[in-house]
Design a protein that fits this description.
Helices cover about 60% and strands about 0% of the residues. It is mostly helical. It is globular, with a radius of gyration of 19 Å.
Length: about 220
């Protein structure tokens, strides 16, 4: 059996230019960019593995997700749709996965087996078209699809509006002494959406630095 080639992380070519432009447009975001200037977003072009790992990590701690992921990799060293789909449910459950997550992972396998060229086709699809594709898979919601756009495809203009970390970071950075925290979810999202318009077409950069302001280590 041949060894699976490691896929290395990539820094988006547009990253530095985007940071320079956003610093001119938004003073507060510029402060975050300066504060965390030693870091950069990286993405890994490994769509299948990314989606499987996102399901593994749903609704559990980072530590628990890492433990389950290591067990899953040990049970299936060659992490491909065909290899993983042939694993017995009992084997997947023994890694710490719930029955529902096993269903989700097997559905991801079926999707990639049925759509053999989808990884190449992603490059020609818009963000919303990719979100529509991915959310047709069981267990993949909009937030997961947006994380995929950022950390697998390196798309520059993604802003996960429902992300709790983003909401918290926006409140701390832009509304520290206001009644923002008392607003309802829809009102918060409306205010954040209006704020985010100034960051286009580089909303991904704003997302990344807002996450970094919370010292979120899982974000690359």
């Amino acid at each position: 059996m041949g060894r699976v080639q490691e896929i290395l992380p990539v820094v988006p070519q547009w990253w530095d230019q985007a940071c320079l432009e956003l610093k001119k447009r938004d003073e507060k975001l510029g402060e975050l960019i300066d504060q965390y200037s030693d870091g950069r977003l990286t993405y890994v072009k490994d769509p299948f593995t990314t989606l499987v790992r996102s399901v593994v990590g749903q609704q559990i701690s980072t530590k628990a997700a890492s433990t389950i992921w290591q067990k899953l990799k040990a049970s299936c060293p060659e992490m491909t749709p065909r290899k993983l789909s042939k694993k017995h449910r009992r084997t997947l459950r023994s890694c710490g996965l719930s029955d529902r997550k096993v269903d989700y992972i097997l559905d991801i396998c079926r999707y990639f087996l049925a759509e053999e060229n989808i990884e190449k086709n992603f490059e020609s699809l818009s963000d919303e078209e990719i979100i529509a594709e991915l959310t047709s898979i069981k267990g993949v919601g909009r937030w997961t699809a947006e994380m995929f756009l950022i950390f697998t495809l390196g798309r520059p203009d993604v802003f996960p509006l429902i992300d709790l970390g983003i909401i918290k970071a926006v409140e701390m950075t832009y509304f520290p002494n206001s009644d923002f925290g008392e607003l309802g979810a829809k009102e918060k999202q409306k205010a954040i959406l209006e704020l985010s318009e100034k960051w286009s077409p580089y909303k991904t950069v704003a997302s990344w630095f807002l996450w970094k302001s919370l010292n979120n280590s899982p974000m690359r």
